[in-house]
Design a protein that fits this description.
The protein is an alpha/beta fold. The protein contains 13 helices and eight strands. It starts with a helix and ends with a helix. The C terminus is likely disordered.
């Protein structure tokens, strides 16, 4: 059961999400409304127009085709004739595509290691700090590992988060071996009986060979030193980059066994539809979304609320 404080916090977050998705919503809803009101019957032209609007909203070609195929099946099955009547079906189809399973956050309740990966500049280190802070707020014992040793600012940033959140940090000097930092952090996690160890990693995707070797080495150390720990690998992607985030996700899937996606900077972008594209295309759930700098501006992904915010069904959120 959620307590009242958590409900209020969640409601506040999704009001900000509604506001943050304004640009995306404007690009989607005006077009969709024009289609639904401009056609008197549901035919191929209607579906083609709808398809074009969804693709323009960064939902992507493959995902849009999947949505339209599913919508056609539902329209046929329910015998719907009026375009306006299938608007709710479209929204429901997208929600179904994006729902996160109940066990998506299993790492929170197990002794676990969370590897955070992503290119520089996407908000990866900040995400480590925010998740650590939130877990600490749940009464968990958290340790952070500053394994992004190639960017001095990353170690400083994470140290700042450790002070702010009141969680332990294991760090070495800039330029030291990231795997050695993870090794030390695992020993500390075991000795201090930590619930969750969160590892920040370097984000040099342009030098993929080095990154691949580095992640392999880190994974080998985790498997050898902490075999009983539950493993979660989250890739952090910048929502403002649209289809570029999809190609980043694809490249990271080549070097790591990704279990979830964190989508940051969704406030103020017209490319919010990318959340739908990424989840559908890779079958990897979006687990967190970020809409600002504060700790509470990163939240667990709620498919229903996100799609309602995207399609201007704000009453569904605020009346919960």
């Amino acid at each position: 059961m959620q307590d009242n404080n958590e409900k209020t916090q969640k409601k506040g977050f999704f009001k900000r999400l509604v506001s943050g998705l304004t640009k995306t919503r404007d690009s989607i809803t005006s077009g969709i409304e024009a289609v639904f009101s401009g056609f008197s019957s549901i035919d191929e032209d209607f579906y083609e127009e709808l398809e074009e609007i969804l693709i323009m909203a960064d939902i992507g070609v493959a995902t849009t085709e999947r949505i339209i195929t599913d919508l056609k099946d539902k329209v046929k099955e329910k015998g719907i004739k009026e375009p306006q009547e299938c608007k709710a079906l479209l929204v429901d189809t997208i929600k179904e595509l994006m729902r996160v399973t109940d066990n998506a956050y299993a790492f929170e309740n197990k002794t676990s290691v969370v590897l955070m990966i992503g290119v520089n500049g996407v908000g990866k280190t900040t995400t480590v700090g925010k998740i650590a802070s939130q877990l600490k707020g749940q009464g968990k014992k958290v340790i952070m590992a500053a394994a992004d040793t190639f960017r001095a600012a990353a170690i400083e940033q994470l140290t700042e988060w450790s002070n702010r959140a009141g969680v332990d940090i294991i760090a070495q000097q800039e330029g030291s071996d990231p795997a050695a930092v993870v090794f030390d952090a695992i020993q500390a996690a075991k000795a201090r009986k930590a619930d969750v160890l969160i590892c920040d990693t370097a984000g040099r995707l342009h030098n993929k060979k080095n990154l691949m070797e580095e992640l392999r080495k880190i994974n080998r150390i985790i498997e050898r030193e902490y075999p009983d720990a539950y493993k979660e690998t989250l890739v952090v992607l910048d929502g403002t980059t649209g289809q570029n985030a999809v190609s980043q996700a694809k490249q990271f899937m080549e070097v790591a066994d990704i279990s979830g996606i964190v989508l940051t900077k969704l406030d103020g972008t017209a490319k919010g539809g990318i959340a739908i594209a990424i989840q559908s295309e890779f079958g990897i759930p979006v687990k967190y979304i970020g809409i600002g700098e504060g700790v509470d501006d990163l939240q667990k992904f709620d498919a229903d609320a996100f799609v309602d915010a995207l399609f201007d069904r704000t009453d569904d959120i605020t009346n919960e």
